Amino acid sequence: MSIGEENHALFSDLLQSAHFPYADVFLQPLTWDGLYEAIAGITLSPVTKEYYRLQIENTPSNNFPTTLCGDLSDGDNTLVAPYLQVILSDLWSSAVLENAQIPSFTMRSYQQGILSGEIMDRFLNQQIATLKEWNKESVQSGLALDLLYRHTSALGKSEILEAAKRKLIYSDRDEIINSLIRKCKELFLLTSAHSDGTNLGHNLLALVVIRQYSISLSPGQQAARILGAKTGEATEQGKNSWLNETELDVVEKGMQGMRSLSDKEKELLEFSRIKKVQAQKDRQRNRIIRGVLGAVVVIFAALAGWQWHVASQRYQYARAGELAFTAREELKKDNTLALDVAYNAYSTLEENSPPLLILALSDIFHTQDEMPLYKSNFPHTKKVFTAVFSPDGKQVLTASEDGYAKLWDINGKEILSLPHEIEVKSAAFHLTGNKY
Predict the structure, then answer these.
(1) What pLDDT is attached to residue 372?
(2) Can you spell out the DSSP letters for 132-182?
(3) Alpha-carbon gap, residue 384 to 401, rounded angstroms
(4) What is the pLDDT of residue 188?
(5) Residue 293 contacts by C-beta under 8 Å, 6 or more apart in sequence?
(6) How far apart (Å, rounded) are the C-alpha atoms in residues 297 and 292?
(7) Across the chain, which distance is largest between two alpha carbons, in Å?
(8) CA torsion 124→126→129→131, rounded to 10°?
């Protein structure tokens, strides 16, 4: 049975209390020779060599086992074995897919998988998926990736995160961070370091973590990028810099997926919230102002419309009165023309016409005994739709279903015939009387 160093003392006490005989055998990290044998040993035994038919490139210029040993030995050796298994398993899958009969480990396939980050990327995604099954919120919020990122350096290497620094970075979420660390150790993403610190499982993982963190769209990473841009050394500090409402919303949603805020970031957040409230009040005030202005515009528009209507009515009233005088003047010469003028004036306002016009119509009507109203014959072959007098009352324009518009004098003599291809529904004179 093998037990991790952190549980060794507790397990030993249990065995001793139960008087169970045991002996400690401390497992040593893989040496260079052990690593080399783990990589190339499958080709050394005739049985495994015949069964797997694996070819391993080990020429002086392209020695795959030596290169892999060097890469795995670069960093904390405690997790060499798990990462050796990850790399060899991935290379085996690719080799079998490429040539199932004679798979091969070559420098080209190894360097392509390691330098591009494909091998470690697949491993990290696989472990993150397992981590998500354990605690969905810590992964979706970005907190798990944030924790891993804190174990990387600017040189793209793994860096020890000491316990004191970790507590400072995540001062308000010790419980979830401690749980995450334990789970990440189980998944070989993290390993223990001195002073209760933690380290990435291997240096090979660092660049992949940095890349995933930089492109992550999780709420925690988006919030961290915004805060970094607003509080960086090159940005303007003080009351002249704050988060707009969209940025503030992103930061507030992402705070649970990132490290604890610094004092400067807390001040920025508080000031941004004040500015948000002010902006909301300004928008509310502006909406009220726009509403009032809109109401004023509507009122003035209605008032202007009403005034136009009154002015139009007054004009029509005055015009009707003027035509009443004209009709009375025509009555002295021709009561039929006088009736036409008076009727045209009456048709505009009808019962609202001025009393003078009503009186004129009455007087014209009662002149029929002394001077009968005349009528003329304006013949068409079919129904006449309209017949209108010219402004001077001396001509008549008719429109008929027979497809003709005809101009007559007052006595019914045809002056002009205007043929059309279809029936003519209406005809009218221009105000000048010269056009129709």
Answers:
(1) 74
(2) HHH-HHHHHTTHHHHHHHTTB-TTSSB--B-HHHHHHHTTT-HHHHHHHHH
(3) 6
(4) 93
(5) none
(6) 9
(7) 151
(8) -60
The pair phi, psi for residue 393, each rounded to 5°, is: 75, 10
**pLDDT at residue 298, rounded to an integer:** 92
CA distance 229 to 220: 14
User: What does the pLDDT read at residue 78?
Assistant: 66
Task: Give helix 219-231 / helix 245-254 axis angle, nearest 10°.
Answer: 130
Question: Could you read off the pLDDT of 326-366 as tens digits, one per residue?
Answer: 878 877 777 777 777 888 777 777 777 888 777 877 777 77
CATH architecture of 135-261: Orthogonal Bundle (1.10)
Give the CATH number of domain 376-436: 2.40.10
Render pLDDT for 9-33 as a digit per residue (tens, 0 to 9). Answer: 787 888 888 888 878 877 777 788 8
Query: Cα separation of 216 and 229, whole Å?
Result: 16
Sign of CA dihedral 148, 154, 158, 163: negative
Distance, first Cα to last Cα, the chain: 116
Report residues of the chain scoring pLDDT below 50. none
- Helical H segments across 350-393, by residue range: 355-365
SS3 call for 244: coil
Cα atoms in the Cβ-side hemisphere of radius 13 Å centred on 294: 6
Reduced DSSP (H G I as helix, E B as strand, rest coil) percent helix, strand, coil of the chain, to 5: 60, 10, 30
Contacts of 352 (CB under 8 A, 6+ apart): 317
346 to 260, 313, 392, 398, 431: CA distances (angstroms): 87, 13, 17, 22, 18
Please report the pLDDT score of residue 348 as a whole number.
Answer: 76
3-state secondary structure of 388: strand
Sorted by where each begins, the domain ranges of the chain are 5-116, 135-261, 294-374, 376-436
pTM: 0.63
Neighbours of 61 (CB within 10 A): 6
- How far from the centroid of its chain's Cα atoms is residue 419's Cα? 65
Which residues lie closer than 8 Å to 65 by C-beta, 6 or more apart?
36, 39, 40, 56, 58
Name 156's Cβ contacts closer than 8 Å, sequence gap at least 6.
206, 207, 210
Q: Which residues pair with 105 in a beta bridge?
A: 56
Rounded to 5 degrees, φ, ψ at 200 are -60, 155
